[in-house]
TrEMBL record:
Keywords: Oxidoreductase. It comes from the Bacteria. SUPFAM superfamilies: FMN-linked oxidoreductases. This is Alpha-hydroxy-acid oxidizing protein.
Amino acid sequence: MTNMGPGRTRQTQVYVRGLGGERPAVPVAPERLQAAAQAKLAAADFAYIAGGAGAERTMRANLAAFERVRLLPRGLSGRRERDLGVELFGQSLGSPLLLAPIGVLEAAHAEADLAVARAAAAEGVPFIFSSQASVPMEQCAAAMGATPRWFQLYWGTDDEVTRSFVRRAEACGASAIVLTLDTTLLGWRPRDLDLGSLPFLRGRGIAQYLSDPVFRSRLDASLPAPGTAPPRTAALLRAGAELRARGRPYHLSLTQMRAAAARFTATYTRPDLGWDDLSRLREWTGLPILLKGILHPDDAREAVTRGVDGLIVSNHGGRQIDGEVAALDMLPDVVAVAGDLPVLLDSGVRTGSDVAKALALGARAVLLGRPYVYGLAIAGEAGVREVIQNVLAEFDLTLGLLGVGAARELGARHVVR
């Protein structure tokens, strides 16, 4: 039987099951996908995952930017089969899709990053481990086998912890380090603020730290002095129970967990991170270094001169600055000055046609974020797999309908801005 490709294969699977009255567990349409996830999640968890900065203008701008780009198909030029593959840093990938680093995935599902790692491996899609993960990178790497994984780095005020993260990423087979530039301070997020909810204070999303030998070595020095324990209010008792539960896998007491959460929140951001720090990161690792959060062409030029290996055009999914420029709008300008450096896009990607638009505007690959987290919330590992399958199916069909035989052939001639 002729290979139908992921697009027709996925379509056929869904429609055949529909004959028996079975509908997909994970909605295909982006709006319905988000709504189904919201119905599964506690209010604070959904707020953290779905929310953005300020009035969420940047989140809307990211989506509007994709609306403004129109695809332009060519007739009588289709191919029976399409090649979705791309190459990044000497690795051949089956598609231009990577799963973005997202913290506190336990807010979506109990298996958190581990479920995502398994789904990524099953679908052959790289997963970028987050510094703010709910499962240590070593466990996720073990679940992924030979599937590529990268590590996203937040550079905090403790350089030795940062360096330890890099060493661990190398040891667990990461093939790139993604330094995030746009979160040197936590953005103003009204959804979380209105609920008074910051997950890190409850010990959520700090598994990389709790499992890190350098970070753990700092805890004894940060323990509270005798007689300074907080008053036993009901809210603190509930928070203490959560911290105690989260400390068990790491053999930490409640007091140590409180100290760990406090130390993390005091040290994880570094507002004065500068260009000269890149030279130190280069000394620490021989892995390719990508800068995530590049929007200004001048920053892209500086990155080239500093010898970085790749750029990710991103505004953190609209979670950091309200009213910020849309990532897709800046993609062509960054690509124009990046030279031979691979440029990836993050922020606002929801569908397979979005992937095609980003590649046509010069991205080598894209990072998918909130949609896979919604799939995780709805159906765990299986939900993540369905979201990946749906995005790649639509991307494959979009290529075919555009008259394009390979992802690498997409270019400016295929879009109207």
